[in-house]
Structures are given as structure tokens and as C-alpha cells.
Amino acid sequence: MRPSEMLKDSCSLEWQAATNHVFCQELTLGSLSLDKMRIYLAQDYTFIDNFVRLAASAIHHAPTLADRLPLAAFLGIIAGPENTYFQRSFDSLNVSKEEQETPSLLAPTAGFQALMLKAAQSGSYANMVAVLTVAEWVYLSWTQNTDRIDSPLPFYFQEWINLHEGEYFESVVEHLRTQLDRAYDAADGAEKATIADYFKQAVTLEKQFFDACYDI
Ligand SMILES: Cc1ncc(CN)c(N)n1
């Protein structure tokens, strides 16, 4: 079994909870309340900032140019179309400049930022790709698990789905999983336990990140 599959199976309850979350179901059905979407987007924009920093660190630590390039290309999507998506959504949903730039961080957002920073500062490529893999694989999985409707969705729902499905995004997740598989295989026992810990913490935080939009 691939190490990435084994890591996923080792926290399957948390994985199921994150990838079948009611937030994702409501988003794809178009029934998600706009207040929840506003909260989510403002929190997630601060997540993206730290994700970019962690991805940059992983690019630096990747073993070869061939390992580095797919993540570098993916960062271009985040810096380009994904960033524009946030700006257009903030405008359309009337999210204030203050909420866009300095929202009060909810606990899972702060927890995720701390985990990403810790992974980057650990200097271990394996720890970094464990967190990055979870972040993108959980999103690919929820787009695959959710139901769809025939009528068109507002762009701030539809484009969020589009950014996390399809052939290109599947190739990003496959690249990250392959990087994680190799780094895990090369790790010793203690390092493997640390990688598994990062993986599980990230999955748990993904679920809590969605939960937090309902707690306000
Ligand atoms: C919290 C979180 N996790 C993952 C993703 C996927 N890009 C995201 N935007 N936000």
C-alpha cells in the first residue's frame, strides 16, 4: 500500500469527517449561507498566505528540479487565478477591507498557521509535504464526494469547486502524494511517527476549519 494511503487510513474517521463535511455539501448544492461563506473566505485567505510560505519552503527543500517544478507551477495558480477568485468574491459578497486583511483568527485557522510554520521550520521536506498533501487531497476528495445540482451556482461557489477538481488538480495531488510516499519510505522510525503526526493534525484541522464556520 502507498504510504500516503496508509497515512490516510490511519486517521480515517477524521478524513471522512473532513471530506464529507456539511459545509462542502451545502456549498456544492448552493444552499450555504452567505455569512458562512464570508467567514470561510476571510479565514481561508490568511490560510493561503501561510500555505504559500510553506509551499515555497517545500520547493526549496525538494530533492531535485523535477520534484520542485510541479509545486512551483501550482503556486502560480494560487498567486494568479485563485488570488483573483478571492478578490472578486470579497467584492461580490461585500467583505470589508478589514475582514479581508486582518480578520480575527478562529482557533482552527490559528492552529493551521502554527502547524504550517512548524513544518516549514522543521527543515524536513517530509513534514512539509505531509501538510501540503493533506491540504490539497482533502479538497480533491470533497469535490469528488459531494452532490451537484443542474442549475448554475454563483461564481463564488462554482469557481471554488472548479479550482479543486479536474485533471490538472488531480495531477497536483498525485505529485504531492508521490513526494510524500518517497519521503516517508526514506524516513527512519521516529521520523515516520512525526510525519504521521503532521498528517493527522492537518486532517483534524481541515475538519475543524469547516466546523468553525458554524460556531459563530
Ligand atoms: C483550510 C484549507 N485547506 C485546503 C485548502 C486547499 N487549497 C484551502 N484553500 N483551505
UniProtKB/TrEMBL annotation:
Pathway named in the protein's UniProt entry: Cofactor biosynthesis; thiamine diphosphate biosynthesis
Catalytic reaction(s) noted: thiamine + H2O = 5-(2-hydroxyethyl)-4-methylthiazole + 4-amino-5-hydroxymethyl-2-methylpyrimidine + H(+); 4-amino-5-aminomethyl-2-methylpyrimidine + H2O = 4-amino-5-hydroxymethyl-2-methylpyrimidine + NH4(+)
Protein origin, superkingdom: Bacteria
Organism: Marinomonas sargassi
Keyword vocabulary terms for this entry: Hydrolase, Thiamine biosynthesis
Key word Hydrolase present: yes
Function: Catalyzes an amino-pyrimidine hydrolysis reaction at the C5' of the pyrimidine moiety of thiamine compounds, a reaction that is part of a thiamine salvage pathway. Thus, catalyzes the conversion of 4-amino-5-aminomethyl-2-methylpyrimidine to 4-amino-5-hydroxymethyl-2-methylpyrimidine (HMP).
Official protein name in the record: Aminopyrimidine aminohydrolase
Pfam families (UniProt xref): TENA_THI-4
